[in-house]
Each structure stands twice: as structure tokens, then as C-alpha cells.
Amino acid sequence: MLIEQIPAPQLARRLRTEGVRLTTGAFTVHLHLSGRTVVQEFARLYARYPVEQQPGIDDARIRVGPAPWYRRLGGATAHTFADEFPAVKPVPMDRAFTALETGLNWGVMRSGAAPIIMHSAVLERHGRAMLMPAPSGSGKSTLAAALALRGWRLLSDEMAVFSFEDFEVIPNPRPVSLKNKAIEVIGAFAPDAIFSRTFVGTPKGDVAYMRAPDEALARLHQRARPNLVLIPKYQAGADTTLRRLGRSEAFNWLIESTGSYPTMLDTGFGLLARLVESCGLYALEYSNLDQAIALLTRVSDEHENSDPD
Asked: Which site among 29, 169, 237, 287 is 20 to 30 Å from 64 CA-CA?
């Protein structure tokens, strides 16, 4: 059953009471939500996601809702818990959906359900995955959204989840987080894309979320082998340029993007070393999305027949 197949009143009741077991690809999360606006945004942006009907093992339990009435001094706030631990600082109830998105990230990373999670966007084309590990503000999410709207499959905007058994990336597509000018840029780039409302005045500025394309959700469990590592950087007015990265430079980027790396010892080192040995390694500077997409599509085609093994 999909979220959109549950009538709105029933969905709101279930989220408020027993919760729903949401499958995002790599993870199954037991989710409880209270509050009209957060439930409406969730129903809109997660409409095509499957719900597990039978009890099972959950990778995380996330709860977002208002504090009890007697704690609402200064107005209603949304509180977020992952496995009953506070996950996000309280936010105004009208920004509860932003807390949900942060809580979903925090909850699965804290749970240890996946041994290595890299902060990276991941896009797939012709069965091969491109990793984009980059810090906030680099233009990573803007580029990921644009690629996902032009023929690439979104595996994730936020995290690369690896399978050690077969060196593949496990999809975990969720709404793409866009900030400030990127909201308008992607809105003009793809007028038919589905967005949340814009949340104004968050610690990261204005934030809106783009719903994951239907193809990403239709292939929710189809993994892909990495064959490209790309470090993107948006620079206003810049020409679209691509340069090769040295292995040591790429390795440092991957380490900095993998919070759990220090605890993984030889296993983590081996995975990241395999990435730099087997993937094309590049840095991209861009200001024009169409030019960046055309260049990356050509590079992807050149590396399509490369064998990670």
C-alpha cells in the first residue's frame, strides 16, 4: 500500500496513534506525526512511498509533534524524537516538516542500521551511480535535483548507503532539500516538479523540498554500482569546467563526508580505497545547469563500460 492510497482522515489518525511503517528504500522507519500542517506536507511529498502493513524490524522510530499544552509557553513548538531521544531542537509548529526531514536523517544514522553512511547525493544512469560528496552550500542538492529531472535516477539527495557484500549503493530517495535561491532556480528549471511550501527563516535560510521523481520511487530497491565521484561547486557566473581529481584528494573528500569512518577501521578504509581505485574522480564548477548536465552525461557515457572490479 502507498501513502496516497490511505484516505486523508485515516492517514492523519494512524500517524497520530499507532503510526505508519514507511519504507524509503534502504530503511524502514516507524513514523508518528501530529499536527495538521506537517501531516499535510508529509502526505504530499511522500504520496508514492510504500507502507509496510505487517509488524517487522524498524531501522528507526521517529516522532514529531507539539509539546503538551502545559509546556507551550511562547507558542506551540514541534518536538522531534528518534527512538525516544531528542533529535532536533524544537521548532515552530509551522516548520515541523523541516524537523521531520532532519529527524529522518539523524534517526537512521544514529541507529547503526547501515555501517557506513556517506553525506553525499547519489544519481544513477544506465545502472552506474555517481556520488556527489560535498558540503552544504556547494550546489550539490541543486545539481542533484536538476539531474533527477533530466533523465538521471535519484538514489539520494543526502546519503550514500553502501552494501559491503556487492559494493553497490542502496537507494534511499527522499525529498530534495533546496535552499534560498535554489528554490527559484529549480522551480523555473522544472515548473511541473512538486514542492513543499517554502519554510522561511530557518537556521539555513529559506528551505523548500522537491518531491522525489516517480521513477526513483518505482525503482526503490534497485541498487547501482558506483563508477563516478564528483565534487560539485556552484559559482555564480562561472564557466562549466571539469577537472580530474587525484586519488589522495578524492580520498580526503570521501573521508570528510563519512562521519562513521573512524569507527569502521579496515572495512571503512577498504571501501573508500575501492571507490578511488575504481571510479572516475572529478571536480565540477558550474553556474549553468543545462551545461553541467550535458557535460556530466557525456562523462557518464565515457565511464559507462568501466568495471569497478
From this structure: 169
DSSP assignment of 204-272 equals: TEEEEEEPPPHHHHHTTT--BEEEEEEEEEE-TT---EEEEPPHHHHHHHHHHT-TTHHHHHHHHHHHH
In terms of domains, do 75 and 144 share one?
no
Range of the domain at 188: 117-303
The Cα–Cα gap between 86 and 84 comes to 7
CA atoms within 13 A on the CB side of 201: 4
User: Both 107 and 123 in a single domain?
Assistant: no
Residue with cell 532539500: 177
- For 113-128, what is each residue's pLDDT tens digit? 777 789 999 999 999 9
Regarding pTM above 0.85, the answer is yes
What is the spatial distance between Cα 284 and Cα 282, in angstroms, rounded to a whole number?
A: 7
The number of folded domains in the chain is 2
Is residue 86 located within the same domain as residue 194?
Answer: no
